[in-house]
Amino acid sequence: MTTELLSFVYTPQQRPDKRPAERRRTDFGEIFDEFSPDRAEVQASRCSQCGIPFCQVHCPLHNNIPDWLKLTAEGRMDEAYELTSATNTFPEICGRICPQDRLCEGNCVIEKGFESVTIGAVERHITETAFENGWVTGPQPLVERDHSAGIVGGGPAGLAAADVLRRYGYKVEVYDRHDRIGGLLIYGIPGFKLEKSVVERRTTLLAQSGVVFHTSTDVGRDISFADLQAKHDAVLLATGVYQGRDIKAPGVGLQGVVAALDYLIASNRTGLGGDVPAFTSGELNAAGKNVVVIGGGDTAMDCVRTAVRQGAKAVTCLYRRDRNNMPGSQREVSYAMEEGVHFEFLSAPEAFLGDDRVEGVRAVRMRLGEPDEEGRLRPQVVPDSTYRIEADLVLKALGFDPEPIAETFETPDLDVTRWGTVKTAFLTGETSLDGVWAAGDIVRGASLVVWAIRDGRDAAESIHLHLEALADAEQLQATG
Ligand code: FAD
Ligand code: SF4
Ligand code: SF4
Q1: What is the pLDDT of residues 105-123, one digit of tens each?
Q2: Shortest-distance atom of ligand 1 to CA 444
Q3: 2 has pLDDT over 50
Q4: 112, 63 in Cβ contact below 8 A?
Q5: Domains of the chain from N-terminus onward
Q6: How far apart are the CA of 66 and the centre of ligand 3, in A?
Q7: Which of 42, 232, 315, 323 has the fewest Cβ atoms within 10 Å of its own Cβ atom?
Q8: The whole model's pTM is what?
């Protein structure tokens, strides 16, 4: 057993084993293996136990990272799990898909010169060990309370809130328009980053603990928002953002030019055994095709890597800035490169070519000019630089905006920002409507799973305070 800490001076960073690109190109299994217990202990022992741990400061959940690394190094896994689960509802999910290079690990002080502690992989290992040993349970309330909360959206924000509220003993019902619970964890993020069974075992625990899931229930269509408000004492909006941004270019309406999320949902649904006619017909299937993905974020990386696994003939990513200015995780970009994706940096689409179906993309070279108001270098067109790329399938992965929520829910008094996201009070998630909270992407715009978990937990704590006050007021009234 390794107990000596600060071993980073003589122990190099080692991540869990990564499956060779040639093997992983052919399936949707996760690309990293589990840490063995020995390797996890050794890697955790590299932590220097900083007095001011910047890793913790830069984790949106402020996880107690140094303490659980120390416990792991000492082999005290049950205590390590108690700590990881105290601040994070789904540590095994964050350990897999947080962009750690931008969050905890990117801010680890030993990153400079020694390479960071492998925080995400240890967090995953702790929780997988807990699952193996049967230490993970769903919420187990000490008291049952009369009040109920209705949650619209079963993504990470909604599920994190459901977990906290059920622990307090409230009746919790989650409504989702999809046939499965999990939001983008199920139908957005591909299995090679997060296997579906990892999400489903969590929703099973929540259901076993009494959380009621209403799937295939589109709020605003199958049930009105007013009915939900009447049924529940508090309502949480956790509906995410789903309106894919479009491209303004000739030919964008051709067959074969499709939204990234439609493509990813079809792939995930098929992988789960569902029957997706647009996949079977080839419309949303990259097999044998020249695929061009437009965009440089995480969604674009998920599309290119999915296309590789579906057996595309060639996969090209077209991005208008350079590699250093990509918005997504650099690690994901390097995995895509290992898997054979071709990148055309500093390139943008000018037109989509073809009669009915897309046959090619006319692209133009870009260069980076002056910074914009956010400090990002503005791409500018290089004159006379057009070129053609063959394409039978073009995926538009340019980000997402919220759907018009106040209209869908017929709630004109719900305050939204100029971007269409829901306005909430700082840290509590309260909206302008009485008894209604909001959390996750519908508040922040397209963001990260770890932030959705944080928002869901915060909103649930605020709902708890509200419902406790309501219960006190009702009791006072009843006792005269
Ligand atoms: P969602 O996960 O979007 O869940 C919202 C839920 O609300 C959905 O299930 C939806 O069906 C439901 N819903 C919406 N409207 C209604 C309605 N009217 N009635 C009933 N139900 C409704 N983040 C990371 O941290 N790491 C990653 O690697 C990563 N990869 C990503 C890859 C892709 C392709 C995408 C699109 C996103 C990725 N993200 C990643 C971002 C992350 O998935 C989101 O930030 C996160 O899921 C937001 O959680 P949420 O609960 O707010 O919303
Ligand atoms: Fe790092 Fe994410 Fe875990 Fe926080 S939740 S410690 S950011 S992997
Ligand atoms: Fe350990 Fe790095 Fe965090 Fe310091 S910053 S406590 S070395 S993980």
Answers
A1: 999 998 777 799 999 999 9
A2: 52
A3: no
A4: no
A5: 7-132 (1.10.1060.10), 148-242+400-479 (3.50.50.60), 246-396 (3.50.50.60)
A6: 6
A7: 323
A8: 0.96
